[in-house]
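Hey, resending since the last one bounced:
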Amino acid sequence: MRRDDIAVTGIGLVTPAGVGTEATWSTVCSGTPTAAVDPSLGEVPVPMSCRVPPFDVQAVLGPQVWRMDRFTHLALTAARQAVDDAGLDPATWDGARIGVVVGVGYDSKDLVIPAVRKLIDGAYEKLSPLLIPRTTANAAAAEICIALGAHGPSMAVTTACASGATALGTARDLLLAGRCDIALAGGAEAPCHPLPSACFAQMGALSTRLHDPEGASRPFDVDRDGFVLAEGAGLMVLERAADARSRGARPHAYFSGYGTSTDGYHYAAPHPDGVGIEQAFTAALADAGLTTSDIGHVNAHGTGTPLNDRIEGAALTRVFDGHPPPVTSTKGVTGHPLGAAGAIEAALAALTLDHQTIPPTANLQHLDPDIALDVVAKAPRSHRMDAVASNSCGFGGHNTVLILQRA
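The structure tokens again:
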């Protein structure tokens, strides 16, 4: 398969690091953490999150914003950014040839919890008829199609915290199969609500570093103790490279490899040997027609949980035969936006190629001695890269690896 089969021609990012691609990239490169105590989480055990900076949602999305849930607001905002970045005009495209694939890990809670209270109180007449269409996993993809006039294949993909990455791979498959000519793909999540926060805390997955919120998300650090819940969205415009060239588009990168696997081991814990990560990497490299020596950087899943980072570190060391390229985890800045993480990180990987610069892993003070990786820390690192990989994992054993090549 040629290295330039699928081009990334547009990127949209709405993250705790900033609203917009430039703002997000600048904050990620500065290594500035975004975690903070979150009063909206109330009396939960760990009232801490990474929130998207305030922005005027109605000014961006128009008067129909009232009918959408938070994760849809974020997805549609990122989608509009990506389309603008790609130099496309939805008023002139053939909507029948436009596909939309959005990864979502967990359904909405902001609207569901009040509705459950009404149900318990027997106030059925007060339940909104829009509750279902606003909160189903496909809501973001549907609203993007409505807003932008996309009438080709559209779907929601859910593979837990690998959802955004899997959505990008699925969209690539649609393009290669000729099912559409342009695909808007990525992930969106808005989980900063007391229920998921309390449940993740009960699992022991969240950092409890409440005395130092900014230092709470610390991937690969010896003192890491969990992730910080985050919201966000990342959407990319994908199209066949020949089509992009014919309209004079400048790609950020080429999307050349996609590999996915399932551990089939445990409902939450990764396989202790990291075999699923290795399998997904091997598949992605084969798909791209590359070897490990071609990969100049890995944007790791790197959640900051003790188990995940150790297993991922060992798996990457084996994949690269003891000589892995420089690695980073941008979750030190953004926190963990669950189903949106893989898409946001793939977009950042494309920007890493664009800028030939690897962002640092925030809060990494002392690398865990059991993790034999070259983790970029403290400052961005200029580095020659022709191909990079982005790795994502999810509850249920999902693993997805994306490979991007320099344009």
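The chain has a mean pLDDT of 95.

Sorry for the duplicate.
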